[in-house]
Amino acid sequence: MKPTMRKPVGIFAILGIITIWAVIVASFSSVIGNWHIAIQSVIYCIAGIVWIAPMRPLMIWMETGRWRA
Length: 69
What we know:
Layout (H helix, E strand, L loop, with lengths): L5 H22 L1 H4 L4 H14 L4 H10 L5
Helix pairs in contact: 1-4
């Protein structure tokens, strides 16, 4: 089987998505920082989980070459 570029491309895409997501979340830190600590915790927990959503199709593509399982 011939190696493909899907995995290296996918890894760089994952790193790019994480970087972009971190910049977006960090750009709101001055606003979120003024809120109550309980609300901040909920927001940051949600933000820490939401970035995973686009990873599944990307990882499926990296393994199979298709976007759907």
